[in-house]
């Protein structure tokens, strides 16, 4: 794929500065398309600020989420807490979890001596499942790719890659 085609793909995917993404990938060898797509997809699992009522969705799946969760939502509602306030807290916790998981993909942290040689990583793979490029430092880009901040198409905003591979808005 040449720069023009890759730029167009980034544009269709909702990147704010698609030419910058494409240039960074092609000239610096950073797998920006994979980085952008992973984070975009990950954010789709986080409660949206402007989306449909997530508390109503939980209530509709009472058997799946459990009575304890429904009872907690009922108590919160009875206290007069607006759903927007609860959403702000839940989104923050989900963002922190996403950040932690993205960091964990790059660095397992300190582990016991018996398993200190165990490691893992996230890779872009080809059609046969063979690693093509390591996707690193995603935790550095979590906040910048937050759809509520960045405007990524299909779930929020566009973000831009930096020359280091980190994404900035």
Task: Briefly characterize the structure.
The chain is 50% helix and 8% strand. It has helices spanning 3-13, 18-28, 32-43, 54-60, 62-65, 67-78, 83-106, 147-150, and strands spanning 122-125, 131-135, 160-161, 167-168.
Q: What does this protein structure show overall?
A:
This protein is mostly helical and 169 residues long. It has one domain (3-168). The chain is 50% helix and 8% strand. The protein has helices at residues 3-13, 18-28, 32-43, 54-60, 62-65, 67-78, 83-106, 147-150; strands at residues 122-125, 131-135, 160-161, 167-168. The strands form 2 sheets. It has a two-stranded antiparallel sheet with strand order 1-2. It has a two-stranded antiparallel ribbon with strand order 3-4. Helix 1 crosses helix 2 (18-28).
Helicity range = 40-55%
Mean pLDDT across all amino acids: 87
Biggest sheet features: 2 strands, antiparallel
Domains, number:
1
List the quaternary state of the chains.
Answer: single chain
- Compute the separation of the termini in Å: 25 Å
Number of helices: 8
Backbone structural class: mainly alpha
Secondary structure tally: strands: 4
The dominant shape is: globular
Unreliable spans are: 153-169
Question: What is the H/E string?
Answer: HHHHHHHEEHEE
Computed Rg: 19 Å
Residues in β-strands, percent:
5-15%
Order of adjacent strands in the largest pleated sheet: 1-2
